[in-house]
């Protein structure tokens, strides 16, 4: 990693050079001795130091989410001892576990280097650029920014946590060129900004981690924010595809062409498969269920259903595990959510289903907004095709999201239990 006197990090008003960070990383690493380097995100400056120190020492760093319930943390940690200093693994990071038990993804030095190189080609990053990072450092999205910036000699402006007013103030206080956000963060940032445009220094608002609704994209574009929808996962070292510019012709799910060195294919039920040098070594807690990991030809089968357009760009339709089947029609919740986000008075929406003996899945929309459930259903009857219309709308104070702003599908199902259909 970079070991120059260039500014590596700005944190809590303090600028830290790469040389200082490198030295701090050696000190922090020394405290681990021969023990496995397992760390939960407590002090963000120490976490960044560990990332640099572990890389320099050619040690595996396990970035463990401290918010995970204890039984899940223990299950993830159980096989850590099998990764020895002799392996090429440099980072172990858990998936979000939004649909089940988190998986511990192993990324090698070659994986991370390939992911960084591909990202820095698609999203140009130069010495002197500043990437504002409000994402958790226990997940690949936040960690990957550290590796990209080090390779480019750029600076990371590290927010202690995401607070929209503070982040908006930081964007105006520093010549921030890049920022990474999930859609929920973007909405709060626009609120904090009063839908004003960002400073001209901001070139890229990398938006991923969850589906971007057309309503939110339209709002950001109208305010002059340079959105770049992106798609990726822990297993690909973060980014897999990014669309660098969008306009009013953009459609939900469009994420651009795959980054250089990635191959993609659609398999079986339309799931996206990917291969390339950035794709993980495998799972530390392997064989969680049939099909996990890589096949004999190096292909990783994702959990996402996708479409490859004629020009080679990707559109992500949704999670295969989230698919609903109503009256024999296959429905993707994200498509319904994107449509319902256009309903006046709906500020946020998530879709789940109840079971019917005749129809199978019956679409239910949970929403945050100012209009009554009957009005949501009336709008849906006017604007959506039959199968896509929710049969029930439930107004809630807030939608259940995980730490990265993705809809918590299991929590949605629990939330709908006990609600009676609107008359």
Distance between the terminal alpha carbons, to the nearest Å?
Answer: 62 Å
The CATH first-level class of the largest domain comes to Alpha Beta
**Low-confidence spans: pLDDT under 50, at least 5 residues?**
none
Could you report the average pLDDT, rounded to the nearest whole number?
88
Q: Enumerate the strands of the largest sheet in spatial order, edge to edge or round the barrel.
A: 2-1-8-7-9-10-11-12
Number of helices: 11
User: Can you tell me the CATH architecture of the largest domain?
Assistant: 3-Layer(aba) Sandwich
Class derived from helix and strand content: alpha/beta
Morphology call: globular
Strand count, sense and barrel status of the largest sheet are: 8 strands, mixed
CATH topology of the largest domain: Rossmann fold
SS elements, strand count: 23
Return the domain count.
2
Into which percent range does the helicity of residues fall? Answer: 25-40%
Description:
By secondary structure, this protein is an alpha/beta fold. It has two domains: 7-318, Rossmann fold, CATH 3.40.50.12780; 323-416, GMP Synthetase, Chain A, domain 3, CATH 3.30.300. It is 28% helix and 28% strand. The protein contains eleven helices and 23 strands. It has helices spanning 18-30, 44-56, 70-77, 109-122, 140-152, 164-173, 183-193, 214-222, 333-340, 373-383, 409-416, and strands spanning 7-11, 14-17, 37-40, 61-64, 89-94, 104-108, 130-133, 155-158, 178-181, 204-207, 227-233, 238-242, 254-256, 263-267, 271-275, 282-283, 300-308, 314-319, 324-326, 329-331, 346-356, 360-369, 392-395. The strands form five sheets. It has an eight-stranded mixed sheet with strand order 2-1-8-7-9-10-11-12, with helices on both faces. The chain has a five-stranded mixed sheet with strand order 3-4-5-6-16. Helix 1 (18-30) packs across helix 2 (44-56) and helix 6 packs across helix 7 (183-193). It is globular, with a radius of gyration of 22 Å. The termini are far apart.
């Amino acid at each position: 990693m970079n070991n120059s006197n260039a500014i590596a990090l700005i944190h809590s008003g303090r600028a830290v050079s790469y040389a200082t960070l490198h030295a701090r990383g050696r000190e922090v690493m020394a405290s681990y001795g021969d023990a496995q380097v397992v760390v939960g995100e407590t002090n963000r400056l120490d976490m960044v130091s560990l990332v640099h120190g572990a890389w320099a020492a050619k040690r595996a760093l396990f970035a463990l989410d401290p918010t995970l319930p204890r039984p899940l943390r223990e299950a993830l940690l159980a096989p850590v001892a099998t990764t020895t200093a002799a392996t090429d693994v440099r980072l172990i990071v858990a998936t979000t576990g939004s649909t089940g038990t988190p998986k511990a993804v192993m990324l090698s030095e070659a994986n991370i280097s390939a992911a960084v190189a591909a990202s820095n080609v698609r999203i140009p990053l130069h010495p002197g650029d500043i990437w504002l990072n409000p994402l958790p450092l226990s997940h690949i999205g936040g960690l990957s920014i550290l590796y990209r910036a080090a390779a480019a000699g750029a600076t990371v402006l590290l927010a202690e946590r995401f607070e929209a007013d503070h982040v908006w103030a930081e964007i105006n206080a520093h010549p921030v060129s890049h920022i990474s956000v999930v859609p929920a963060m973007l909405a709060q940032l626009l609120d904090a900004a009063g839908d004003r445009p960002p400073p001209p220094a901001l070139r890229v608002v990398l938006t991923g981690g969850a589906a971007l609704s057309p309503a939110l994209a339209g709002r950001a574009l109208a305010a002059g924010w340079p959105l770049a929808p992106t798609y990726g996962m822990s297993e690909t070292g973060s980014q897999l595809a990014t669309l660098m510019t969008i306009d009013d012709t953009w459609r939900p799910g469009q994420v651009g062409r795959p980054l250089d060195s990635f191959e993609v294919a659609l398999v079986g039920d339309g799931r996206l498969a990917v291969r390339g040098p950035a794709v993980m070594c495998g799972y530390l807690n392997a064989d969680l269920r049939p099909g996990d990991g890589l096949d004999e030809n190096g292909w990783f089968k994702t959990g996402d259903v996708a479409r490859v357009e004629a020009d080679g760009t990707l559109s992500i339709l949704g999670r295969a595990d989230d698919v609903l089947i109503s009256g024999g029609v296959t429905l993707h919740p994200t498509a319904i959510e994107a449509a319902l986000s256009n309903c006046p008075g709906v500020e946020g929406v998530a879709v789940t289903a109840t079971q019917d003996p005749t129809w199978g899945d019956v679409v239910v929309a949970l929403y945050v907004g100012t209009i009554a459930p009957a009005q949501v259903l009336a709008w849906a009857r006017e604007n959506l095709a039959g199968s896509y219309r929710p049969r029930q709308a439930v107004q809630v104070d807030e939608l259940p999201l995980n730490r990265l702003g993705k809809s918590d599908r299991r929590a949605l199902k629990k939330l709908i239990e006990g609600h009676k259909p609107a008359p």
